[in-house]
Amino acid sequence: MRALVAGGVGEPIDVLRLESRPVPAAAAGQALIRVTAAPVHASDLHVVRGRYGFTPEFPAVGGHMECVGRIEALGPDVGGWQVGQRVVVVAVPAVPGPPAVGTWQDYLVADAHRLVPVPDRLDDGRACQLAVNPLTALLLVTRELRAQPGEWLMQTAAGSTVGRLVIQLAGHLGVRTIDVVRRRAAVEEITALGGDAVICTEDEDVVRRVTEIAGPAGVRKAVDCVAGQVGAQVSRALAPGGELVVYGALSTHRQTDPAALTIPLLARSVIYETKAVRGFWLNRWFGTTSPTDALRALSEVRHLVADDVLSIPPGRPFPLERFAEALAFAEAPAHGAKPLLVLDDDRDGGDA
Q1: Average of pLDDT values for 4-32?
Q2: Domain range enclosing 227
Q3: Which of 124, 131, 217, 324 is deepest in the core (most CB within 10 A)?
Q4: Helix/strand/coil percent split, the chain, to 5
Q5: Summary mean pLDDT of the chain
Q6: CB atoms within 10 A of CB 331
Q7: In 3D, which of 42, 31, 44 has the Cα closest to residue 4?
Q8: Angle 195-277-253 from CA coordinates, rounded to 5°
Q9: What CATH number is associated with residue 160?
Q10: For the segment 102-120, what is each residue's pLDDT rounded down to a tens digit?
Q11: Helix 42-49 and helix 323-331, axial crossing angle in degrees, nearest 10
Protein backbone atom coordinates (compact mmCIF):
# COMPACT_ATOMS: atom_id res chain seq x y z
CA MET A 1 0.00 0.00 0.00
CA ARG A 2 1.01 3.66 -0.37
CA ALA A 3 1.80 5.88 2.60
CA LEU A 4 2.85 9.52 2.78
CA VAL A 5 5.66 9.42 5.34
CA ALA A 6 7.60 12.18 7.11
CA GLY A 7 11.19 11.09 7.61
CA GLY A 8 11.75 13.58 10.41
CA VAL A 9 11.02 17.07 11.64
CA GLY A 10 11.17 19.73 8.96
CA GLU A 11 9.26 21.60 6.29
CA PRO A 12 6.55 19.18 5.04
CA ILE A 13 7.48 19.61 1.38
CA ASP A 14 11.06 18.63 2.21
CA VAL A 15 10.52 15.64 4.50
CA LEU A 16 7.32 13.97 3.20
CA ARG A 17 7.76 11.11 0.72
CA LEU A 18 5.48 8.47 -0.77
CA GLU A 19 6.50 5.00 0.39
CA SER A 20 5.28 1.44 -0.07
CA ARG A 21 4.35 -0.33 3.16
CA PRO A 22 2.62 -3.60 4.09
CA VAL A 23 -1.11 -3.48 4.80
CA PRO A 24 -1.54 -3.58 8.61
CA ALA A 25 -3.72 -6.12 10.41
CA ALA A 26 -6.52 -5.30 12.84
CA ALA A 27 -6.00 -6.50 16.41
CA ALA A 28 -8.68 -7.12 19.04
CA GLY A 29 -11.12 -4.22 19.26
CA GLN A 30 -9.88 -2.72 15.99
CA ALA A 31 -10.96 -2.39 12.38
CA LEU A 32 -8.90 -2.23 9.19
CA ILE A 33 -10.03 0.79 7.17
CA ARG A 34 -9.56 1.32 3.45
CA VAL A 35 -9.09 5.10 3.32
CA THR A 36 -10.80 7.07 0.55
CA ALA A 37 -10.15 10.70 1.59
CA ALA A 38 -8.28 12.59 4.31
CA PRO A 39 -7.99 16.35 4.88
CA VAL A 40 -4.77 18.32 5.23
CA HIS A 41 -5.22 20.33 8.42
CA ALA A 42 -2.84 23.08 9.51
CA SER A 43 -2.16 21.04 12.64
CA ASP A 44 -0.98 18.13 10.47
CA LEU A 45 1.72 20.39 9.04
CA HIS A 46 2.61 21.78 12.48
CA VAL A 47 3.23 18.22 13.69
CA VAL A 48 5.73 17.64 10.90
CA ARG A 49 7.41 20.95 11.71
CA GLY A 50 7.70 19.98 15.38
CA ARG A 51 5.52 22.91 16.44
CA TYR A 52 2.46 21.06 17.73
CA GLY A 53 1.49 19.80 21.17
CA PHE A 54 2.92 16.32 20.54
CA THR A 55 5.70 14.86 18.39
CA PRO A 56 5.33 11.39 16.84
CA GLU A 57 8.17 8.93 16.53
CA PHE A 58 9.70 9.49 13.10
CA PRO A 59 9.51 8.23 10.44
CA ALA A 60 5.74 8.71 10.75
CA VAL A 61 2.78 8.58 8.37
CA GLY A 62 1.38 12.09 7.98
CA GLY A 63 -2.13 13.18 8.90
CA HIS A 64 -3.33 12.64 12.45
CA MET A 65 -6.85 14.04 12.67
CA GLU A 66 -9.55 12.32 10.60
CA CYS A 67 -10.40 10.50 7.38
CA VAL A 68 -13.23 8.63 5.69
CA GLY A 69 -13.18 5.11 4.30
CA ARG A 70 -14.75 1.67 4.40
CA ILE A 71 -14.23 -1.20 6.82
CA GLU A 72 -12.04 -3.78 5.10
CA ALA A 73 -11.76 -6.23 8.00
CA LEU A 74 -12.68 -6.51 11.67
CA GLY A 75 -10.45 -7.73 14.45
CA PRO A 76 -11.59 -10.02 17.27
CA ASP A 77 -14.13 -8.74 19.78
CA VAL A 78 -15.57 -6.05 17.49
CA GLY A 79 -19.35 -5.94 17.38
CA GLY A 80 -21.86 -3.60 15.81
CA TRP A 81 -19.89 -3.02 12.61
CA GLN A 82 -19.89 -4.66 9.19
CA VAL A 83 -17.24 -5.15 6.53
CA GLY A 84 -17.87 -2.64 3.73
CA GLN A 85 -19.53 -0.12 6.03
CA ARG A 86 -18.59 3.51 5.37
CA VAL A 87 -17.12 5.27 8.39
CA VAL A 88 -15.24 8.31 9.58
CA VAL A 89 -12.09 7.55 11.55
CA VAL A 90 -11.45 10.02 14.35
CA ALA A 91 -7.68 9.65 14.44
CA VAL A 92 -6.99 12.55 16.82
CA PRO A 93 -4.35 11.17 19.20
CA ALA A 94 -5.43 11.47 22.82
CA VAL A 95 -3.06 13.32 25.15
CA PRO A 96 -2.12 11.50 27.27
CA GLY A 97 -2.67 8.37 25.24
CA PRO A 98 -1.32 6.06 22.52
CA PRO A 99 0.72 7.31 19.54
CA ALA A 100 -0.88 8.98 16.55
CA VAL A 101 -2.32 6.93 13.68
CA GLY A 102 -1.43 8.43 10.30
CA THR A 103 -4.38 8.99 7.95
CA TRP A 104 -2.39 9.72 4.77
CA GLN A 105 -2.17 6.09 3.66
CA ASP A 106 -4.27 3.56 1.75
CA TYR A 107 -5.10 1.46 4.83
CA LEU A 108 -4.98 2.03 8.56
CA VAL A 109 -6.14 0.27 11.70
CA ALA A 110 -8.28 2.13 14.22
CA ASP A 111 -9.94 1.31 17.53
CA ALA A 112 -13.62 0.56 16.96
CA HIS A 113 -14.68 3.27 19.42
CA ARG A 114 -13.00 5.83 17.12
CA LEU A 115 -15.36 5.04 14.22
CA VAL A 116 -18.45 7.07 13.31
CA PRO A 117 -20.98 5.84 10.70
CA VAL A 118 -21.33 8.20 7.75
CA PRO A 119 -24.77 9.46 6.66
CA ASP A 120 -25.53 8.24 3.12
CA ARG A 121 -26.18 11.75 1.86
CA LEU A 122 -22.74 13.02 2.91
CA ASP A 123 -20.08 12.65 0.20
CA ASP A 124 -16.47 11.77 0.98
CA GLY A 125 -15.29 15.36 0.60
CA ARG A 126 -17.48 16.47 3.50
CA ALA A 127 -17.44 13.23 5.47
CA CYS A 128 -13.66 13.31 5.89
CA GLN A 129 -14.09 16.66 7.69
CA LEU A 130 -17.00 15.51 9.85
CA ALA A 131 -15.27 15.16 13.18
CA VAL A 132 -12.54 17.65 14.08
CA ASN A 133 -13.81 21.14 13.25
CA PRO A 134 -17.54 20.53 13.90
CA LEU A 135 -16.69 18.75 17.15
CA THR A 136 -14.44 21.63 18.22
CA ALA A 137 -17.23 24.15 17.55
CA LEU A 138 -19.76 22.05 19.48
CA LEU A 139 -17.49 21.58 22.50
CA LEU A 140 -16.49 25.25 22.66
CA VAL A 141 -20.04 26.56 22.56
CA THR A 142 -21.95 23.94 24.56
CA ARG A 143 -19.39 22.34 26.91
CA GLU A 144 -16.55 24.76 27.53
CA LEU A 145 -18.61 27.97 27.76
CA ARG A 146 -22.16 26.58 28.03
CA ALA A 147 -23.51 29.50 26.03
CA GLN A 148 -27.21 30.11 26.62
CA PRO A 149 -29.95 31.50 24.36
CA GLY A 150 -29.83 35.28 24.25
CA GLU A 151 -26.23 35.47 25.51
CA TRP A 152 -23.45 37.13 23.57
CA LEU A 153 -20.56 34.92 22.44
CA MET A 154 -17.52 36.66 21.00
CA GLN A 155 -15.08 34.92 18.65
CA THR A 156 -12.01 35.74 16.58
CA ALA A 157 -11.22 34.46 13.06
CA ALA A 158 -14.94 34.23 12.36
CA GLY A 159 -14.21 33.42 8.72
CA SER A 160 -12.25 30.27 9.58
CA THR A 161 -13.83 26.83 9.30
CA VAL A 162 -14.47 26.59 13.04
CA GLY A 163 -15.62 30.22 13.15
CA ARG A 164 -18.27 29.60 10.52
CA LEU A 165 -19.45 26.49 12.33
CA VAL A 166 -19.69 28.45 15.61
CA ILE A 167 -21.93 31.01 13.87
CA GLN A 168 -24.20 28.27 12.50
CA LEU A 169 -24.40 26.43 15.84
CA ALA A 170 -24.99 29.64 17.78
CA GLY A 171 -27.85 30.59 15.47
CA HIS A 172 -29.39 27.17 15.99
CA LEU A 173 -29.14 27.55 19.78
CA GLY A 174 -30.30 31.17 19.92
CA VAL A 175 -26.89 32.46 21.02
CA ARG A 176 -25.86 35.87 19.65
CA THR A 177 -22.36 36.23 18.19
CA ILE A 178 -19.87 39.06 17.96
CA ASP A 179 -17.56 37.98 15.16
CA VAL A 180 -14.08 39.45 14.77
CA VAL A 181 -12.47 39.45 11.30
CA ARG A 182 -9.30 41.09 10.02
CA ARG A 183 -10.47 42.10 6.52
CA ARG A 184 -13.23 44.57 5.69
CA ALA A 185 -14.14 42.39 2.69
CA ALA A 186 -15.18 39.59 5.07
CA VAL A 187 -17.77 41.61 7.01
CA GLU A 188 -20.61 41.23 4.51
CA GLU A 189 -19.93 37.51 4.11
CA ILE A 190 -20.02 36.84 7.86
CA THR A 191 -23.21 38.89 8.23
CA ALA A 192 -24.84 36.89 5.44
CA LEU A 193 -23.80 33.68 7.20
CA GLY A 194 -25.75 34.73 10.30
CA GLY A 195 -23.25 36.63 12.43
CA ASP A 196 -25.16 39.07 14.63
CA ALA A 197 -22.42 41.71 14.83
CA VAL A 198 -19.08 41.88 13.02
CA ILE A 199 -15.95 43.78 14.08
CA CYS A 200 -13.15 44.35 11.58
CA THR A 201 -9.71 44.85 13.16
CA GLU A 202 -8.52 46.51 9.95
CA ASP A 203 -10.27 49.74 10.86
CA GLU A 204 -12.17 49.26 14.15
CA ASP A 205 -11.20 49.19 17.82
CA VAL A 206 -12.32 45.88 19.33
CA VAL A 207 -12.87 47.10 22.89
CA ARG A 208 -14.86 50.16 21.87
CA ARG A 209 -17.01 48.26 19.37
CA VAL A 210 -17.86 45.52 21.88
CA THR A 211 -19.10 48.18 24.31
CA GLU A 212 -21.25 49.71 21.58
CA ILE A 213 -22.70 46.31 20.57
CA ALA A 214 -23.23 44.58 23.91
CA GLY A 215 -23.99 47.60 26.07
CA PRO A 216 -23.12 48.05 29.76
CA ALA A 217 -23.47 44.34 30.55
CA GLY A 218 -20.73 43.53 28.07
CA VAL A 219 -19.67 40.08 26.87
CA ARG A 220 -18.86 37.35 29.36
CA LYS A 221 -17.92 34.52 27.01
CA ALA A 222 -15.40 34.43 24.17
CA VAL A 223 -13.33 32.01 22.10
CA ASP A 224 -10.07 32.88 20.37
CA CYS A 225 -7.87 31.07 17.84
CA VAL A 226 -5.58 33.98 16.93
CA ALA A 227 -3.72 34.76 20.21
CA GLY A 228 -1.17 37.59 20.16
CA GLN A 229 -2.50 41.15 20.26
CA VAL A 230 -5.95 40.13 18.96
CA GLY A 231 -6.39 37.65 21.80
CA ALA A 232 -5.31 40.36 24.23
CA GLN A 233 -7.90 42.78 22.83
CA VAL A 234 -10.64 40.18 23.27
CA SER A 235 -9.58 39.65 26.87
CA ARG A 236 -9.77 43.40 27.54
CA ALA A 237 -13.20 43.60 25.91
CA LEU A 238 -14.68 41.01 28.29
CA ALA A 239 -16.93 42.05 31.14
CA PRO A 240 -15.64 41.49 34.68
CA GLY A 241 -15.79 37.78 35.49
CA GLY A 242 -15.72 36.92 31.78
CA GLU A 243 -14.17 33.80 30.30
CA LEU A 244 -11.88 33.49 27.28
CA VAL A 245 -11.13 30.04 25.83
CA VAL A 246 -8.11 29.96 23.52
CA TYR A 247 -8.00 27.06 21.06
CA GLY A 248 -5.48 28.27 18.46
CA ALA A 249 -2.72 30.74 17.69
CA LEU A 250 -3.07 31.77 14.05
CA SER A 251 -1.05 34.92 14.65
CA THR A 252 2.03 32.78 15.35
CA HIS A 253 1.82 30.76 12.11
CA ARG A 254 5.33 29.83 10.89
CA GLN A 255 6.96 31.85 13.68
CA THR A 256 9.67 30.28 15.82
CA ASP A 257 10.49 33.17 18.16
CA PRO A 258 9.11 32.22 21.61
CA ALA A 259 8.31 35.90 22.27
CA ALA A 260 5.78 35.78 19.45
CA LEU A 261 3.87 32.90 21.02
CA THR A 262 2.13 34.99 23.66
CA ILE A 263 -1.10 36.71 24.66
CA PRO A 264 -0.17 39.91 26.53
CA LEU A 265 -2.75 40.08 29.31
CA LEU A 266 -3.34 42.99 31.67
CA ALA A 267 -2.74 42.02 35.29
CA ARG A 268 -5.52 44.41 36.35
CA SER A 269 -8.05 42.46 34.27
CA VAL A 270 -6.98 39.15 35.75
CA ILE A 271 -6.77 40.32 39.36
CA TYR A 272 -9.39 43.02 39.90
CA GLU A 273 -11.85 42.04 37.18
CA THR A 274 -11.32 38.30 37.78
CA LYS A 275 -11.31 37.45 34.10
CA ALA A 276 -10.32 33.88 33.25
CA VAL A 277 -8.24 32.76 30.29
CA ARG A 278 -7.82 29.06 29.64
CA GLY A 279 -6.94 26.78 26.78
CA PHE A 280 -8.78 24.09 24.86
CA TRP A 281 -7.05 21.35 22.89
CA LEU A 282 -9.10 18.62 21.25
CA ASN A 283 -6.32 16.08 21.74
CA ARG A 284 -6.35 16.58 25.50
CA TRP A 285 -10.15 16.46 25.54
CA PHE A 286 -9.99 13.00 23.98
CA GLY A 287 -7.35 12.00 26.54
CA THR A 288 -9.53 12.99 29.50
CA THR A 289 -13.00 12.05 28.20
CA SER A 290 -14.44 8.56 28.37
CA PRO A 291 -15.02 6.75 25.04
CA THR A 292 -18.75 6.78 25.82
CA ASP A 293 -18.87 10.56 26.24
CA ALA A 294 -16.68 11.07 23.17
CA LEU A 295 -18.97 8.92 21.04
CA ARG A 296 -21.99 10.77 22.39
CA ALA A 297 -20.51 14.12 21.30
CA LEU A 298 -19.51 12.72 17.91
CA SER A 299 -22.99 11.33 17.41
CA GLU A 300 -24.41 14.77 18.21
CA VAL A 301 -22.12 16.31 15.59
CA ARG A 302 -23.18 13.72 13.00
CA HIS A 303 -26.86 14.53 13.56
CA LEU A 304 -26.23 18.28 13.36
CA VAL A 305 -24.50 17.79 10.01
CA ALA A 306 -27.10 15.33 8.72
CA ASP A 307 -29.89 17.76 9.69
CA ASP A 308 -28.12 20.64 7.87
CA VAL A 309 -27.65 22.63 11.08
CA LEU A 310 -23.91 22.55 10.43
CA SER A 311 -22.68 22.85 6.86
CA ILE A 312 -19.26 21.46 5.91
CA PRO A 313 -17.55 22.94 2.83
CA PRO A 314 -16.74 20.33 0.16
CA GLY A 315 -12.97 20.87 0.15
CA ARG A 316 -10.47 20.76 -2.74
CA PRO A 317 -9.45 17.22 -3.79
CA PHE A 318 -5.90 16.21 -4.71
CA PRO A 319 -4.76 12.67 -5.63
CA LEU A 320 -2.28 11.30 -3.11
CA GLU A 321 0.50 11.42 -5.72
CA ARG A 322 -0.02 15.19 -6.00
CA PHE A 323 0.49 15.78 -2.29
CA ALA A 324 2.97 18.60 -2.98
CA GLU A 325 0.17 20.59 -4.64
CA ALA A 326 -2.11 19.91 -1.68
CA LEU A 327 0.54 21.18 0.74
CA ALA A 328 1.05 24.35 -1.30
CA PHE A 329 -2.70 24.92 -1.43
CA ALA A 330 -2.98 24.47 2.36
CA GLU A 331 -0.37 27.22 2.88
CA ALA A 332 -1.84 29.65 0.34
CA PRO A 333 -3.44 32.77 1.86
CA ALA A 334 -7.25 32.86 1.81
CA HIS A 335 -7.44 29.53 -0.06
CA GLY A 336 -11.10 29.22 0.95
CA ALA A 337 -11.29 25.42 0.98
CA LYS A 338 -9.70 22.52 2.83
CA PRO A 339 -7.25 20.49 0.71
CA LEU A 340 -8.20 16.80 0.67
CA LEU A 341 -5.95 13.89 -0.18
CA VAL A 342 -8.08 11.52 -2.25
CA LEU A 343 -7.03 7.88 -2.48
CA ASP A 344 -8.12 5.82 -5.47
CA ASP A 345 -10.58 3.00 -4.98
CA ASP A 346 -8.82 1.03 -7.74
CA ARG A 347 -6.38 -0.80 -5.49
CA ASP A 348 -5.54 -4.44 -5.13
CA GLY A 349 -4.79 -4.30 -1.40
CA GLY A 350 -1.26 -5.68 -1.82
CA ASP A 351 2.04 -4.47 -0.45
CA ALA A 352 2.91 -2.34 -3.47
Answers
A1: 97
A2: 133-280
A3: 131
A4: 35, 25, 40
A5: 92
A6: 16
A7: 44
A8: 70
A9: 3.40.50.720
A10: 999 999 999 999 999 998 8
A11: 100
